[in-house]
Specification:
The chain is α+β, with helices and mostly antiparallel strands and 213 residues long. It is built from 3 helices and 10 strands.
């Protein structure tokens, strides 16, 4: 195992809007940017297996209708265990544990579909863990506190939860979502949440084929 990975890691947070036909471009991106762990939402995967060279895959497919789905890709030289967390209602969520800076750290990929209310009760129990926790994903939660152009119900609920549990939010200064519908405005949907102070930098990368960056 490469112990450097336990001190500094490079994470990818990406809403793929379907991933099966983007495997070659994703493989190039992961290698070019030396991604250690990728949290990918809206995978639209229906098959039991999904393979990217040099990575292990943990995923949750949507079973009751088309679309959705979340997965985590972990570089082969990083040791991890599966975290069988209680998934917050109405979300598609997968999680792993790694040891980062000698501390058990839970990495989560989480997708909350649009028009679904964020269940803050289950999210509270979600964050009730002794582990350090890093959640990456698209919660369809907008709030001016993380530079969104508008605020919606999920954003208000999430902002209340952040304040109540003293969570940290890692957001961007530019939109991560550029809707195909011209009646909708670009905005910030792809965020990260932590329950500890994380020394991190975040960058929007204008690559990969999706309506999300």
């Amino acid at each position: 195992m490469d112990h450097r990975q336990l001190k500094n890691i490079i994470l990818l947070n990406w809403n793929a809007n379907g991933i099966n036909n983007k495997k070659h471009e994703l493989n190039y991106f992961l290698n070019n940017y030396e991604i250690d762990i990728a949290c990918i939402t809206e995978t639209h995967i229906t098959t039991p297996e999904f393979y990217i060279p040099n990575y292990k895959t943990i995923k949750m497919n949507r079973s009751n209708r088309k679309g959705g789905g979340s997965l985590i890709l972990i570089k082969n030289n990083i040791e991890f265990t599966l975290n069988n967390i209680t998934v917050p209602n109405n979300t598609e969520t997968v999680a792993i544990n790694i040891t980062l800076n000698n501390t058990c750290t839970t990495i989560i990929a989480c997708y909350c579909p649009p028009n679904i209310n964020l269940d803050t009760t289950s999210f509270r129990s979600f964050f009730n863990t002794p582990n350090h926790l890093i959640l990456l994903g698209d919660l369809n939660a907008k709030h001016s506190n993380w530079a969104c152009k508008s605020t919606n119900r999920n954003g208000r609920q999430l902002n209340n939860l952040i304040n109540a549990l003293n969570l940290k939010i890692i957001s961007l200064s530019e939109p991560t979502y550029y809707p195909l519908d011209s009646n909708k405005n670009p905005d910030i949907l792809d965020i990260a949440l932590t329950n500890f102070s994380l020394n991190a930098t975040s960058t929007v990368v204008h690559e990969l084929d999706s309506d999300h960056l």
